[in-house]
Amino acid sequence: MSHTEIPAISCKQLSHSFPMGEEPFQVLKDIDLTIRTGEMVAIMGPSGSGKSTLMNLIGCLMTPEQGEVCLLENSTRGMDRAQLACLRRDHIGFVFQQFNLLARTSALDNVKMPLMYADNVVKDGDERARRCLESVNLADRQNHTPSQLSGGQQQRVAIARALINEPSILLADEPTGALDSKTSEDIMALFRDLNRQGKTVVLVTHELDVAQQCDRIIFVRDGVIQSDKSVISHREEVTP
Amino acid sequence: MTLLNTALLSLRRNTMRSILTTLGIIIGISAVIIMFALGEGAQRQVEEQIESLGTNVLMVRAAALNTGGARQAAGTVSRLTLDDAQAIKDDIPEARYVGASINGQAQVVASNKNWSTTLTGANIDYLHASNWEIGQGRIFTNNEFNRASKVALIGETLAKELFDDPGFAVGEEIRVNKVPLTVIGVLAGKGQDMRGFDQDDTLITPLTIAQRRLIGNNSQNAKRVSRLTVSVDEEKNMDFVTEEIEFLLNQRHRVSAGDDSPFSVMNLSAMLSTRAEASAIFSLLLACVASVSLLVGGIGVMNIMLVSVTERTREIGLRMAVGAQPRHILVQFLFESVILCLIGAVLGVLLSLFAVIAIANSLDWDVVISPLIILISVVGTALIGVGFGFYPAWKAANLDPIEALRYE
């Protein structure tokens, strides 16, 4: 990975506030952050620290009040809702704590769903969805609905859905928050695997042992980055 | 295409709700089509009455008369004669036909059957002015009229009542007041008149024979006719001819200038067209009421779409997160409401056709099923789908993805 490579995500002097009573509440203050392509980063912090807002800004779900968020050198500054949607569709795969699968809809259809928002009609949608399910080891469950799947399986369907548009960045918000520890390990192993295949992975977590499986831990408190550490040794230990 | 599938799927997921919502539309569109069919039917009935009346018809009757302080009903005592009819025809060129007639009830006997009917003694002009057409046989000739021949024209209903096979009525003999008459023609059907009487239950003979033998007049009245039926050549001449007739008759009967005229001239065509207008307004009113119920159906659709948007807030957030643009969400929800409305429209059209046919058969009402109205109401319903579906869809499309994803 050379240094001249385009950073996956870069935040420059990022500030954001929410209206709250008379004084707006300053949720992020002057954040500078660069995440290189191929990195696996954990964002930690207590609730109210601003990590969710940071995540939403990185995920192009909103535009910053001040400063700039660049996704693969596409600045979100001044983008309208439709442009943001296209940026998310093309570059980001979202994974949520509550999986957010469509109920009573098969795993295959859930994975396929984002394709309906493509600019051109995708003809090989079923085939692509099947390949994504294969890559999360759920090829045999493609016709199961979420209620017929375990929590870990549901999260893997959600990950497969995040992969369908072949994004370079995966954003996971507490992806193991609703799972037991054994399943959490499986999901983390899957993320590491995807990271090894070249995906940039950013995840928000409360759990230190989850965070320690990443390359880098960013700790946010009171709207500023309190610490930004690399965790190299741990990865070598875990990788067989 | 996939947005359409998604919309269909979500409607199927909430089958009961979709059906109930659609019901509002079904009732609305049925109301529109049924009301229109009935209103238009009533309209057409009036038009048929106008048709059967003949065009531009004036009716002359003796006016209400004072005899020793008691006012008697109009037409009680008639001083009109056949000569008056001839005078009108000769002096007023705009009066194309001047029918003269007397009326009475008659018990008609034909072999083993008998029937009570209206008897009209008339001249030939009466048949033209009243728009009587001949169905079978022929009308009476001038010669037969002058000689007071014992001939008769019978209406369709009378033919049915008197003869086993009305098709062979011509040439048969019937008797009225023991006078034998030969049926020379069966009149073409006219249906009901404006008061709902069956005009085809009738018997028409030459005025001459009716005056002499059939209607129980005393000798003093032997020359009288009870009314004149005048057909005017053009509608714009109606008022002019009315005045002319009044003037002529007053002159002929020596009524001095200041006195009340003993004759009244009525413009039947004008009366009927007033009725036609009234019935047009009435059917418009019905259609408006029906449209209101369609509107209420539309509000029902809007209501349920708002519920649907709220229920699926998280799903909308997810769809936005994975790349749905606002317009995708908008279109998806618009599809839903339009599909609801169109399904309602199709079912409503079927239901109303069924209802209209049932009404026509059971109540024997005139109905008109107009393809144009069906088309308009289906298109209108689709527009209602777009109109009332737009606000919920717009609301969905403008949700904040972050808020929507967090929505419980």
From TrEMBL, chain A:
Q: Pfam families of this UniProt entry?
A: ABC_tran
InterPro entries the record matches = AAA+_ATPase (IPR003593), ABC_transporter-like_ATP-bd (IPR003439), ABC_transporter-like_CS (IPR017871), MacB-like_ATP-bd (IPR017911), P-loop_NTPase (IPR027417)
Q: Name one GO cellular component term.
A: transmembrane transporter complex
Task: Give a GO molecular function annotation for the protein.
Answer: ATP hydrolysis activity
Which SUPFAM superfamilies did the record assign? Answer: P-loop containing nucleoside triphosphate hydrolases
Q: What EC number is given for this enzyme? A: 3.6.3.-
The family database entries (Gene3D superfamilies) matched by this protein are listed as: P-loop containing nucleotide triphosphate hydrolases (3.40.50.300)
Domain ABC transporter: start-end pairs = 9-240
Organism domain of life: Bacteria
Please report the name of this protein according to its UniProt entry. Answer: Macrolide export ATP-binding/permease protein MacB
Organism the protein comes from: Parendozoicomonas haliclonae
Q: What is the lineage of its organism?
A: Bacteria, Pseudomonadati, Pseudomonadota, Gammaproteobacteria, Oceanospirillales
UniProtKB/TrEMBL annotation, chain B:
Nucleus found in the keyword field: no
Q: Which UniProt keywords apply?
A: ATP-binding, Cell membrane, Hydrolase, Membrane, Nucleotide-binding, Transmembrane, Transmembrane helix
Query: Which EC numbers characterise this protein's activity in its record?
Result: 3.6.3.-
What is any Pfam family matched here? FtsX
Instruction: Outline the extent of the MacB-like periplasmic core domain.
Output: 18-246
The lineage's top-level taxon is: Bacteria
**Which spans are transmembrane here?**
20-39, 281-309, 330-360, 372-391
Q: Where in the cell is it found?
A: Cell membrane
Membrane topology per record: Multi-pass membrane protein
Question: Locate the ABC3 transporter permease C-terminal domain: which residues?
Answer: 289-401
Fetch the InterPro entries from UniProt.
ABC3_permease_C (IPR003838), MacB_PCD (IPR025857), Macrolide_Exporter_MacB (IPR050250)
Per the record's keyword annotation, is Transmembrane included, yes or no? Answer: yes
- Please classify the protein's predominant subcellular localization into one broad category: membrane
Give the top-level enzyme category.
Answer: hydrolase
Q: Which GO molecular function terms does the record list?
A: ATP binding; hydrolase activity; transmembrane transporter activity
Q: Which GO terms describe its cellular component?
A: plasma membrane
Family of this protein: Belongs to the ABC-4 integral membrane protein family.
Q: What is this protein called?
A: Macrolide export ATP-binding/permease protein MacB
What is the native source organism of this protein? Answer: Parendozoicomonas haliclonae
Q: Which gene encodes it?
A: macB_2
